[in-house]
Structure formats: C-alpha cells, structure tokens
Specification:
CATH architecture of one domain: Orthogonal Bundle
CATH class of one domain: Mainly Alpha
Oligomer: single chain
Helix content: 25-40%
Number of strands: 17
Strand content: 15-25%
Pfam family, one: CRISPR_Cse1
Protein name: Type I-E CRISPR-associated protein Cse1/CasA
Structural class: alpha+beta
Organism: Streptomyces liliiviolaceus
Radius of gyration: 27 Å
Length: about 575
C-alpha cells in the first residue's frame, strides 16, 4: 500500500489512522530515518534516538503530543515511586497500544465527525478553501521561509498534513484570519489578531535522553510535583467533546494533558484520494501567557515589572523566549538556577527555571537518577516578525548537562557553571572594547566592528565551554575547574585580540587624539592593546597571575593606569 493511500472502511468511509499508519519522522539509533505510527513509536521507543520533524518546532510539538498520550495511557506518573517503576521497566509503554485502540476514531485524520485535531464541516460563510501555505510553516504568507516549495504548497500527503496540523495548533502565526461560520468573534468576515499558538509563546525546553524512551520518561512529570497544577479531570483533546467553531466559554488547562493538546485553532483539511489540497483555518481557544507557570513546565519564566504595573498585580511571570542569535549556554542560569537562589531576600524570584528541569532536579536529589547521568537540555522556539504574522527564525540548540548541576546539594557546581558564563561575557566584552578602540584610533566611528568582534568571541568560546561544562560534573573541585575555564577563555580571546591588532592597519598604529574622561589623549593600537589585556585579565580574575605567560600585562602594569584616562 502506498504511504498515503486511503484506507477504505466502507464505500462512503475513508480513513487515515494515525495509530497504525506511519507519519511521525524518527531517527533510529544507527542514524537512519524513517516514519512510524503512534503504535510503533511507543513500542520501538528504546531503539529510537529522537523525533526528527520537518522543522525543530514540529519536533517539539510532536513530542508534547506523545507526552500527553503517555500521561493519559499510563494514568500518571502519580508520584515519584510510580515514575521509578516506569523507568525500571523496559516495557513501561505496554498499555499504550490498547489505549490507542480504545480511542482509535479520534486519531483518524479523515473521520467525518471527529477528524484528528480538526472541526468537521468547518466552513466560511462563502465556503472558501485556502492554500495549504496557511499551515505549512516553511511557506508563510509573504516571504518564503526555509522553503523547498516555492511559490506555494499545492498538495500534502496525509502523513505530512497530520504533522502540520499538530504544528499549527502549537505555532500558528497571529494576524487577521478569515472568520469561520459560527464564530461570534468574526466582524465583517474577519477575526482580528488573537495571538500565536500557545507553544509559540514559549521558549521551549525539554530534557533529551540517549533514546526516545528516556526522553519521554524524563519529561513525564509526576502529578505530585510541587508548583505545577494537575486537576483530577485532566484530559487530552481527544477525550473531550469535539471543538466547534469559535470559542465556548473561557477556561484554564486542567493539567499537562490538556495543555499539550490545547486547541488554539479551528481547522479542517480538504482532501481527495491523493492527499490534502486545501484548508479552512480560524482561531480557536485563546490562552493568556501571564502567570501560567503553574501549568506550563516546558519553558523558563521571567518576572515582568512592566506587566505587574499594567495589570495592577503584585506578581506576573511571562515565558522567557529564546533568541536565535544567542547560544543556549549563554542562558544557562535560566535553566539551572532554582527558585530559592533567584530570590532576593523576601522578594519573589526574578526568574523560574523550567518545571521539567525542576522535575529532573527532584529525580536526582531523591536518588532516582545518578549524579553523573547526562541529559541534553534542548531549547526550541520561534522568533516571530511583523506583528507575529510570520516566523522569521527558529532557535534550536542543545546543551549537555550532568544532572549533578541540578542537584540541591551540589549547588557549587551549578554556580561555577553560571559564573563561567559571566567570565565569557566579560572576556567577549573586552574583545568588543578592543574593536571599538582600534576603530577610534583609526578615525572610524562604527559600532558594527564591535558587534562583529563579539560574535567572533562567542563563536570561539562556544565549543570549548560546552566541552568544559560536560566535564565539570566529573571534577573533584568545581572552583579549580573554573580556573581551568578562565585560562582557556583567556588564551582564546587573547588570540582573537592579537588578530584584530594585526589587521588594524597603519592608521590605528599611528593613532590620533581623542577626548577621554580626564582630558585628551593619544590613542593608537599599542595603547588599545594595553587596555584590552588589562580588561581581559580583570574579566577573567587574572587567571595567569603568578605565572610566566607572556599573554598580557601583570597586575599594576602601566596599562591599568592608562585605562584610568580612557
């Protein structure tokens, strides 16, 4: 049977059963890729590396779908003991096949009454059918993004269409949408912007293990977890009444099963025997991001004084979004600082690490995971542009962490890891200052050179920091290991500084008079070099103090005095 061939159950009944038909792209342990059904994903999870997805955001959306399914099929984990039993049981997902068979109709992409994640008979007032561009994120309306289908998506096979439906609920863009028949929010046939899909508001974070089975279990948070809300009636979308057009009453998610399958859109595929050729898409159930930290575990949170003032509330947390230009290790503190450490006196915490990493911290603190156990903190999130109507970029990074860094009794290791990021920031700032000083010495006024130098600095430190962080948990003394990092960073940034000096040219070597805090002075590349080495030594706590390195001036040298005149 061809991949997207329809299964005919009766002359008037066609089906594409997601429980038995391959549609989820996965990577096997040997690196090869294939597509599996929901049934196969769970029965083969221990032999799979990860979900692949057409985009990183699709991988995250599909993972959340699988987690909702696992939570519901296993009815848990109820507590840490239940989770421990699952972790120890190689056949822990054995209940899933029977669960899928029980709810099979709700996983039929083409069901006439309850099509998967769709609304049967959804229509506009004029019975319009729109291009599939509206749900395929790599061809947004306007400029193509990651596009291999320019200029339009004419057709999708049913497997790919199912993936994009899951992705649409999670990450659909905002903007004016055509009103669907029965949606009271429609004005003159349009619904005005109501925000992006729920997952698109997050700086997505999850714990990635060595296999898909480990990944699913590491993110399967027990219902007795402090700080997260799990109502007794928590259910995924396929165990609720099918959604109709518009929104029917405001409600909050009842738990992660509900939240991971939240229906932020209303849509309906139009298809024939060869696949999907069009879609109707409208807004669904809105969800406000503020103070959702007690429901959503797969993002870090930041306190927002501006929103507190605007809303007249004493405490407002918002998701901490990702910057695609900023590597994950540079935001390490948001991932590993616990709530107590981010609290200043009696003040509420300024930030909250992701609930899923709080959960992993609990697993290691209570001895369910060994301290040397290695996870990858995976971060995925979109950057929307033009009033959230398009996706401009996608952040996708992973950071290898020994769970020891999350252990409540091993906070010295976590603190040294965070402080090492500050070391890197300081060193790169010194490199950027050098670029600025060399430009001034040459008679150039440009901040672009500073930005370029900083980018080069962070790029040079990226791989070494990740390696150092990987090895940190095995070190006997985290403070001594921090000094190792400072020396490595000093060497790498010094080398980049020397390259800048060599490329500065004759104008910088000759120099010019500039105005400084304490009058005018003659700035040339030699003085810029002295300032740079002094700043770098200070940023990295003088890592070669007392050593013969030849890499920079010692404490008390003339460069420190020269800096005072700048």
């Amino acid at each position: 049977m061809a991949e997207d061939e329809l299964v005919s159950e009766a002359p008037s009944r066609v089906s594409f059963d997601l429980t038995t038909r391959p549609w989820i792209p996965v990577q096997q342990l040997d690196g090869t890729q294939t597509e599996l059904s929901l049934h196969e994903v769970f029965t083969q999870a221990d032999g799979l590396r990860r979900i692949v997805g057409d985009l990183p955001t699709q991988e995250f959306a599909l993972l959340r779908l699988l987690l909702a399914l696992a939570h519901d099929a296993l009815d848990g984990p109820r507590d840490i003991e239940h989770w421990s039993d699952l972790w120890a049981d190689d056949n822990c997902f054995a209940p899933v096949p029977a669960y899928l068979a029980q709810h099979r109709d709700r996983f039929d992409l083409l069901h006439p009454v309850t099509p998967f994640f769709q609304v049967a008979d959804l229509r506009t007032a004029r019975d319009e059918v729109f291009s599939l561009n509206r749900i395929v994120a790599d061809v947004p309306n306007g400029e193509p993004f990651f596009s291999s289908r320019q200029p339009a998506v004419d057709r999708l096979g049913f497997a790919e269409a199912a993936r994009w439906i899951v992705h649409t609920h999670a990450y659909d863009t905002s903007g004016i949408k055509t009103g669907v028949d029965g949606d009271d929010r429609a004005k003159n046939g349009k619904v005005y912007p109501l925000g992006v899909g729920w997952t698109g508001t997050l700086g997505g974070v999850f714990a990635e293990g060595s296999t898909l089975r480990e990944t699913l279990l590491l993110n399967l948070i027990a219902a007795d977890t402090t700080g997260l809300r799990f109502d007794p009636d928590d259910r995924p979308a396929w165990r609720r009444e099918p959604s109709g057009p518009g929104v029917h009453g405001a409600r909050h998610p009842s738990g992660v099963r509900d939240l991971y399958t939240w229906q932020t859109r209303r849509l309906r595929l139009h298809f024939d025997a060869d696949g999907a050729y069009g879609v109707v898409l409208g807004y669904g159930d809105p969800l406000t991001a503020h103070n959702m930290h007690t429901h959503e575990p797969m993002t870090a949170w930041r306190r927002s004084p501006a929103q507190e003032k605007k809303r007249g509330e004493s405490l407002v947390y918002l998701p901490r979004e990702h910057d695609p230009a900023r590597a994950a290790w540079r935001g390490l503190a948001a991932l590993i600082v616990n709530r107590t450490e981010s609290t200043q006196g009696s003040e509420a915490a300024q930030g909250l690490r992701p609930g899923v990493l709080e959960w992993v911290a609990r697993l290691v603190t209570e001895g369910e995971l060994p301290r040397g156990f290695l996870i990858r903190a995976r971060v995925i999130g979109p950057l929307y542009g033009t009033q959230q109507s398009v996706i401009d970029e996608i952040a996708d990074d992973r950071l290898a962490l020994a769970v020891r860094l999350l252990h409540q009794q091993d906070r010295a290791y976590a603190q040294q890891a965070i402080d090492a990021v500050s070391d890197a920031e300081g060193a790169v700032t010194a490199l950027g200052d050098l670029a600025t000083d060399l430009a001034r010495a040459s008679g150039i006024e440009s901040e672009a050179l500073r930005g370029t130098a900083r980018d080069l600095g962070f790029a040079a430190l990226d791989g070494p920091y990740r390696t150092w962080l990987h090895d940190l948990a095995q070190a006997d003394d985290p403070y001594e290991q921090r000094k190792v990092w400072q020396r490595d960073a000093h060497r790498l940034i010094t080398r980049l500084g020397e390259q800048q000096l060599a490329q500065a040219g004759a104008a910088a070597w000759e120099g010019r008079t500039i105005e400084a805090k304490k009058g005018s002075l003659w700035l040339n590349s030699a003085l810029a070099d002295q300032w740079f080495r002094s700043r770098l030594n200070k940023a990295l706590s003088y890592p070669y103090s007392g050593r013969e390195t030849g890499s920079g001036p010692a404490l008390g040298s003339d460069s420190c005095a020269a800096k005072e005149h700048a």
